[in-house]
């Protein structure tokens, strides 16, 4: 039945490509989370009247975030080719996609982190200060736990965007379901391959959404 | 315990400067419950934040237990804050932590080892009457319970001073009273100095030993609660005292009685301490042939004794009325003839 619906699909290739997409998504989400968190916390704490109020650092971080968030992803990949070559040694394969994926998504997530942190009740931060907490303690024990649901729902949205980015990166040879859909499906006019790749991408996206939603709800004790 | 010297705080608002605290001088004794009352914008919020260095003064100094907290580095200031803790109007609990974990937070900051933290949290939960609720999240608690967590959290590191920032303003009257009782209990049991700011005279009356009235960044009146109630000097103080003693209804009644008996004299009596328990009115009526209407009566208990007011209408001939007032004065009751306006 499935064989007759998808006559041209090579299931081994399809499985391989799915793993590559999952690998790229997982790695880039992880690094995006870490870098975005750091950038978001810097943006938050260096804003006026905050604990590290510093207009220069705030401006520079804000400019970096805004620029890289604004460059269309497909152009960013091309712009980053020399950098990728230097970092990874090649511009082909799943690892070569990672720098562009992370640099494209981290600023996006940083903005979400900033929004999440701004939602925190200022009184709670004041209370922590009144107990003698250092800024580092406030970051670890107040800012991050108190914004956890928003941080999780933010990384969920970002991870889903990253699945889309991996498909785009696939077109210029990153591998994964994007490459398969483009080279095997589109260029060789095998509609069934494109369709199957699409179905698998949808399953990945829905799974991420489901897990993200569950974790968000579970972390919210308000 | 706490000495404020020429303390001022000026905010730069962008459109000019705003003097929130203006040359405040204050001495608060150890073990005292000291109230600061004022309307919003009087500078009391800024003043209380100067006491634990959450705000830096523009000039002047804050000396707590011999340590000038305006002159120490940030590390020592953080250490000092563990001994000057604070509770808040909106409780400011971490919603992501349970009752137990919220109370544990200041202990984590102070670097107390885990086993000792658990032990201390248990004591504190008992102390503030939250046994059985340790594992609840703040969202599952009532306002009064949240403030109890706030108090337990503030007491965790055995502070010497407890600052209360409008701690009961978000609570209903009954809960307010139970929280105030808890504060008095803590003050007596632990000998802790309490500084509280409020706009409710009820709070001052119920638990404070001394009170400072703040207006426009300055302390305009300062004294023992009982004295301030008995003889408020400034207009603003009189208005605050009226919050607890007068009611709108009594104003209406007074107006009505004046219309009904334009001949009589309205007189306000103030009793303090033991006088509140004397049958002064009985003596008055037996001795003089005046008629008396009771317009309004009120007895309030402060930490320094009882305080009562009674508004009477006295009817009779002018000499009789004068004699009656002279009698009251001789009994050491403070009298005030209410002007006919």
TrEMBL record, chain A:
<feature type="transmembrane region" description="Helical">
    <location>
        <begin position="22"/>
        <end position="45"/>
    </location>
</feature>
<feature type="transmembrane region" description="Helical">
    <location>
        <begin position="150"/>
        <end position="173"/>
    </location>
</feature>
<dbReference type="Pfam" id="PF00528">
    <property type="entry name" value="BPD_transp_1"/>
</dbReference>
<feature type="domain" description="ABC transmembrane type-1">
    <location>
        <begin position="18"/>
        <end position="212"/>
    </location>
</feature>
<keyword id="KW-1133">Transmembrane helix</keyword>
<comment type="similarity">
    <text>Belongs to the binding-protein-dependent transport system permease family. CysTW subfamily.</text>
</comment>
<dbReference type="GO" id="GO:0005886">
    <property type="term" value="C:plasma membrane"/>
</dbReference>
<protein>
    <submittedName>
        <fullName>D-methionine transport system permease protein</fullName>
    </submittedName>
</protein>
<dbReference type="InterPro" id="IPR051322">
    <property type="entry name" value="AA_ABC_Transporter_Permease"/>
</dbReference>
<dbReference type="GO" id="GO:0048473">
    <property type="term" value="P:D-methionine transmembrane transport"/>
</dbReference>
<dbReference type="InterPro" id="IPR035906">
    <property type="entry name" value="MetI-like_sf"/>
</dbReference>
<keyword id="KW-0472">Membrane</keyword>
<dbReference type="InterPro" id="IPR000515">
    <property type="entry name" value="MetI-like"/>
</dbReference>
<keyword id="KW-1003">Cell membrane</keyword>
<feature type="transmembrane region" description="Helical">
    <location>
        <begin position="193"/>
        <end position="212"/>
    </location>
</feature>
<feature type="transmembrane region" description="Helical">
    <location>
        <begin position="96"/>
        <end position="117"/>
    </location>
</feature>
<keyword id="KW-0813">Transport</keyword>
<feature type="transmembrane region" description="Helical">
    <location>
        <begin position="57"/>
        <end position="84"/>
    </location>
</feature>
<keyword id="KW-0812">Transmembrane</keyword>
TrEMBL record, chain B:
<dbReference type="Pfam" id="PF00005">
    <property type="entry name" value="ABC_tran"/>
</dbReference>
<dbReference type="InterPro" id="IPR027417">
    <property type="entry name" value="P-loop_NTPase"/>
</dbReference>
<keyword id="KW-1278">Translocase</keyword>
<dbReference type="InterPro" id="IPR018449">
    <property type="entry name" value="NIL_domain"/>
</dbReference>
<dbReference type="GO" id="GO:0005886">
    <property type="term" value="C:plasma membrane"/>
</dbReference>
<keyword id="KW-0067">ATP-binding</keyword>
<dbReference type="GO" id="GO:0006865">
    <property type="term" value="P:amino acid transport"/>
</dbReference>
<keyword id="KW-0472">Membrane</keyword>
<keyword id="KW-0029">Amino-acid transport</keyword>
<dbReference type="GO" id="GO:0016887">
    <property type="term" value="F:ATP hydrolysis activity"/>
</dbReference>
<dbReference type="InterPro" id="IPR050086">
    <property type="entry name" value="MetN_ABC_transporter-like"/>
</dbReference>
<comment type="similarity">
    <text>Belongs to the ABC transporter superfamily.</text>
</comment>
<dbReference type="InterPro" id="IPR045865">
    <property type="entry name" value="ACT-like_dom_sf"/>
</dbReference>
<dbReference type="GO" id="GO:0005524">
    <property type="term" value="F:ATP binding"/>
</dbReference>
<dbReference type="Pfam" id="PF09383">
    <property type="entry name" value="NIL"/>
</dbReference>
<dbReference type="InterPro" id="IPR041701">
    <property type="entry name" value="MetN_ABC"/>
</dbReference>
<keyword id="KW-1003">Cell membrane</keyword>
<feature type="domain" description="ABC transporter">
    <location>
        <begin position="2"/>
        <end position="241"/>
    </location>
</feature>
<protein>
    <submittedName>
        <fullName>D-methionine transport system ATP-binding protein</fullName>
    </submittedName>
</protein>
<keyword id="KW-0813">Transport</keyword>
<dbReference type="InterPro" id="IPR017871">
    <property type="entry name" value="ABC_transporter-like_CS"/>
</dbReference>
<dbReference type="InterPro" id="IPR003593">
    <property type="entry name" value="AAA+_ATPase"/>
</dbReference>
């Amino acid at each position: 039945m499935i064989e007759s619906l998808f006559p041209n699909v090579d299931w081994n290739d399809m499985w391989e490509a799915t793993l590559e997409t999952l690998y790229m998504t997982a790695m880039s989400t992880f690094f995006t989370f870490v870098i975005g968190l750091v950038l978001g916390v810097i943006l938050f704490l260096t804003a006026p009247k905050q604990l590290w109020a510093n207009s220069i650092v705030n401006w520079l971080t804000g400019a970096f975030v805004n620029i890289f968030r604004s460059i269309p992803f497909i152009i960013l990949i091309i712009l980053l080719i020399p950098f990728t070559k230097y970092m990874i040694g090649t511009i082909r394969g799943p690892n070569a996609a990672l720098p562009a994926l992370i640099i494209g998504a981290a600023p996006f997530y940083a903005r979400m982190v900033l929004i999440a942190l701004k939602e925190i009740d200022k009184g709670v931060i004041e209370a922590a200060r009144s107990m003698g907490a250092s800024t580092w303690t406030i970051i670890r024990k107040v800012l991050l736990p108190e914004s956890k649901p928003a941080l999780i729902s933010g990384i969920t949205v970002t991870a889903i965007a990253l699945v889309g980015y991996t498909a785009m990166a696939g077109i210029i040879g990153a591998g994964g379901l994007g490459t398969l859909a483009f080279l095997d499906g589109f260029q060789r006019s095998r509609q069934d391959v494109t369709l199957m790749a699409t179905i698998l991408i949808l399953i990945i996206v829905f799974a991420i959404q489901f897990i993200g939603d569950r974790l968000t709800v579970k972390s919210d004790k308000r | 315990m706490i000495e404020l010297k020429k303390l001022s705080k000026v905010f730069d608002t962008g459109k000019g400067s705003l003097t929130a605290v203006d040359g405040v001088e204050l001495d608060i004794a150890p073990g005292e419950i000291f109230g600061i009352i004022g309307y919003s914008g009087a500078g009391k919020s800024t003043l209380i934040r100067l006491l634990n260095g959450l705000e830096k003064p523009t000039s002047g100094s804050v000396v707590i237990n011999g340590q000038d907290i305006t002159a120490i580095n940030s590390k020592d200031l953080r250490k000092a804050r563990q001994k000057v803790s604070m509770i808040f109007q909106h409780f400011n609990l971490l919603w992501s932590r349970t009752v137990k974990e919220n109370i544990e937070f200041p202990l984590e900051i102070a670097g107390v080892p885990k086993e000792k933290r658990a032990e201390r949290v248990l004591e504190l939960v008992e102390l503030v009457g939250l046994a059985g609720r340790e594992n609840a999240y703040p969202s599952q608690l009532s306002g009064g319970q949240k403030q109890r967590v706030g108090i337990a959290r503030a007491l965790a590191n055995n502070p010497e001073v407890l600052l209360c920032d409008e701690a009961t303003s978000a609570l209903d009257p009954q809960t307010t009273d139970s929280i105030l009782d808890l504060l008095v209990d803590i003050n007596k049991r632990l000998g802790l100095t309490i500084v509280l700011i409020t706009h409710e005279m009820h709070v001052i009356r119920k638990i404070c030993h001394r009170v400072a009235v703040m207006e426009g960044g300055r302390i305009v009146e300062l004294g023992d609660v009982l004295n301030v109630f008995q003889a408020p000097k400034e207009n603003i103080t009189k208005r605050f005292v009226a919050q607890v003693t007068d009611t709108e209804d009594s104003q209406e009644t007074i107006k009505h009685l004046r219309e009904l008996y334009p001949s009589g004299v309205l007189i306000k009596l103030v009793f303090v301490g033991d006088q509140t328990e004397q049958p002064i009115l009985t003596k008055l009526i037996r001795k003089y042939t005046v008629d008396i209407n009771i317009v309004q009566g009120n007895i309030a208990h402060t930490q320094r004794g009882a305080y009562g007011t009674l508004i009477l209408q006295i009817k009779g001939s002018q000499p009789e009325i004068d004699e009656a007032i002279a009698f009251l004065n001789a009994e050491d009751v403070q009298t005030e003839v209410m002007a006919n306006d």
